[in-house]
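Materials and Methods. Structural model of Fe2OG dioxygenase domain-containing protein. The 242-residue sequence of Fe2OG dioxygenase domain-containing protein from Variovorax paradoxus was retrieved and submitted for structure prediction as follows.
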Amino acid sequence: MPTSPAPTSPAHIVRALDWSRIETDLAMRGCATTGMLFSPKECAALAALYDEPGRFRSRVVMQRHGFGQGEYQYFDNPLPASIAAWRSALYERLAPLANAWAAAMGQPADYPPDHASYLARCHAAGQLRPTPLLLRYGEGDYNCLHQDLYGDLQFPMQLTVLLSRPGEDFTGGEFVLTEQRPRMQSRAEVVSLAQGEAVIFAVNQRPVAGTRGTYRVTMRHGVSRVRSGCRHTLGIIFHDAR
Ligand SMILES: O=C(O)CCC(=O)C(=O)O
Ligand SMILES: [Fe+2]
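The predicted structure was written out as C-alpha cells:
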C-alpha cells in the first residue's frame, strides 16, 4: 500500500499550502508568504534551541563582520529532525519551480527531485557544512541586505520563519527584500509575517517576464531595526556551505 504522510508531518503540511497563490506571488514579486507552518509552541521550542550548547557549528556576531547588529548560529549535523524534515519537504515542492526559473534564465534546469540528491551534489562540490540557522535580534539590532551564497552551488529559493510574536515579543524588525532591475531603480518589498509563518524568497537572481522577453533581477534580503523586544527567526537554506 502506498504510504501517505501523517497529517501533521511537514510533507503533509507542505502539500496542503496554497501553492497557486504562492507560485503567483513568487512569479510577480520574488517572494511569497506561506501562512502558518509552526504552532506557537513549536516556535517557542525552536527559539529555545538557541541557548542549547552543542546544537550549532558556528556563531556569528553580526557587528564583527559589518553584517548588521545581532547574532545567529548555524546548526550542526545532525540537524534537529523536524528541521531536516521541513527542509527536504520544502525542497521537493520547490525543485520544479527552481528548474522553471533556471530554464527561463538559460541555466541548466537539473535540480534533482529530492533533497538528499541535491545535498550529495553540494557535498561532492565541497559544500559540506549545513546551513539552517537561528537568528536572534534584540532592541536596536538589524540585518543588512545580503545574499546567502555559500559556494558555487546555490538553490535559488530559501525560507525564513518568524518564531516570535510581532507587536508582543518585539516591534520593528521587518523582513525586507530589494529587487535590483537591469538599468532601472531598485524596488523594495516589506513582508509582514505572523508568528510561525514563513516567507519564501529568491536567494539571488530570478527571471521576470518582460515585453521583450525574460530578464533577470537580483534580490537581497535583510531586516529593519528592531525597535523593542527580542525577535527570533529560523532560516532554511537548501544548499550546504563550503
Ligand atoms: O531574520 C530574518 O528575518 C532574516 C533572516 C535571514 O537573513 C535568513 O533567514 O537568511
Ligand atoms: Fe539571510
